[in-house]
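Margin note from the TA: students keep mixing up input and output lines. Inputs are the sequences; the output is the structure of the whole complex. Example:
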Amino acid sequence: MNCSEDSMIQLIHNYLDEEISEEEEKMLREHLQACDSCNRHFHELKKTIALVQSTSHISAPSDFTMKVMQNLPKEKKSVSFKR
Amino acid sequence: METIIKNRIKQIKNGDQNAFAEIVEFYKDKVFQLCYRMLGNRHEAEDIAQEAFIRAYVNIHSYDMNKKFSTWLYRIATNLSIDRIRKKKPDYYLDAEIAGSEGLTMYSQVAADVALPEDELESMELQELIQAEILKLPEKYRSVIVLKYIEEFSLKEIGEILDLPVGTVKTRIHRGREALRHQLRHV
């Protein structure tokens, strides 16, 4: 391997955070075309993110709001916290 | 939206308890989801999400109207979730076998609560697997990954929620992503 892998991995993460300069991105693209190991690493990270994002959104139980409202303190206690 | 929320908060501060119901209605799914992804259990998630809203109500006077309400609310919910994780007994793990129930884990118990059509089962297994891998992350990585990829907050907002410098948030997201990559690459 003729790449300094750690610095490339750091660039991959910067790219995923959208915090990469045009110049760095160009360098990263060229490197990924040439280096199988970094290219695999990059695609595994992309897949991981897609999998985490695919976890379907779940909803709160239907009586959630009612339960919260029932459990609120009857009188505001916050007054005693002041001063 | 933020304007409507702030008007409701003014009403609450003036003693109108009912105005709080609208706030709960608006944020309940996102807060519940956050707690569920952190804790991996619907009952605990509901418990902690309820607690988060009650604390927000009780402490509404300490909320700074110049800041985003959602960030403040998420901070309460995240801190409560982390406290709950820390309080869990060390021998209590979701993937541990339940005594006297061969091969039955808490995952299958939790899943069994929800009746699902068969065609959803295949994708359900993948969802459970992903959730299980998220739960294996140490809490400091788990919270940033959930806030970033499931709740879709920016790095700056995550920093505000967790009271961490953005640089630390980045480092944790990088490590969290790498840990998950190792766990999920053969999926």
